[in-house]
């Protein structure tokens, strides 16, 4: 596939080129929420039995993290119960239900794209002080297929923007989530939100930031066409035309 840029130069010429820009990294391996250790390749850590979202290398780390994790865990559990109720009500009323679980599944499937887009939209290549890393969240707008609302492969990536953390935090996320985000940022994570236009399938993830120094040292240049590359890759456009 060839897309012509303003200058007449091709932006993307082949699938290989795109994979060079956004390498496929496979499924995510969540680090221990306490010590940040990563599991061995192909393995996953035990998950919190309550929220099923935080992972731990062992009981010791889980126990040590509980006091800090508790507010977020309770909030997540309440949120999941809320989703289940909303789904039941929607189905009863004969309405389409866009589940946040589906956008969560989309994230897990597309972490390579999320990583690339978040890095660019938060301008991490500018370095720790000049980037939007501490003040903004990467906001992913997804389009669900209304005929297949639970089909993660029917979701398409519509847009990615940088959203101010204080506004989103106050209006949508709540204090416990903002505290979790700020802590994650300190540990080098990039906050991102996956949602749809109607804001009824929202999910938040903390994504491990790539190596900043590669960019700040000038070894690697940011991808000027990151948005079009991400949309192409998320839409599987190249798979269809190449
Ligand atoms: Zn641990
Ligand atoms: Zn939990």
TrEMBL record:
Molecular functions (GO terms): zinc ion binding
Keywords linked to the UniProt accession: Metal-binding, Zinc, Zinc-finger
Keyword Metal-binding: yes
InterPro entries: Znf_MYND
Keyword Metal-binding belongs to the record: yes
Listed Pfam families: zf-MYND (PF01753)
SUPFAM superfamilies reported in the protein's UniProt record: HIT/MYND zinc finger-like (SSF144232)
Residue ranges of domain MYND-type in the record: 32-73
Full protein name: MYND-type domain-containing protein
Protein species of origin: Stereum hirsutum (strain FP-91666) (White-rot fungus)
């Amino acid at each position: 596939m060839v897309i012509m840029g303003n200058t007449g130069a091709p932006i993307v010429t082949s699938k290989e080129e795109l994979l060079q820009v956004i390498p496929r990294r496979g499924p995510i391996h969540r680090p221990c929420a306490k010590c940040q250790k990563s599991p061995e390749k192909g393995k996953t850590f035990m998950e919190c039995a309550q929220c099923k979202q935080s992972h731990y290398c062992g009981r010791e780390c889980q126990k040590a993290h509980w006091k800090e994790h508790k507010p977020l865990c309770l909030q997540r559990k309440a949120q999941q119960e809320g989703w289940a109720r909303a789904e039941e009500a929607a189905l009863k009323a004969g309405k389409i239900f866009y589940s946040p679980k589906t956008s969560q599944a989309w994230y897990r499937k597309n972490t390579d794209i999320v990583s690339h887009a978040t890095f660019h939209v938060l301008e991490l290549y500018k370095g720790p002080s000049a980037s939007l890393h501490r003040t903004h969240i990467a906001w992913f707008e997804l389009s669900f297929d209304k005929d297949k609302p639970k089909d993660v492969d029917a979701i398409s990536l519509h847009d990615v923007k940088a959203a101010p953390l204080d506004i989103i935090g106050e209006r949508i996320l709540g204090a416990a989530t903002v505290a979790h985000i700020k802590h994650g940022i300190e540990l080098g994570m990039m906050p991102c939100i996956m949602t749809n236009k109607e804001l009824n399938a929202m999910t938040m993830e903390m994504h491990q930031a790539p190596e900043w120094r590669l960019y700040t040292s000038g070894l690697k240049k940011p991808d000027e066409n990151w948005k079009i590359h991400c949309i192409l890759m998320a839409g599987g456009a190249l798979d269809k035309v190449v």
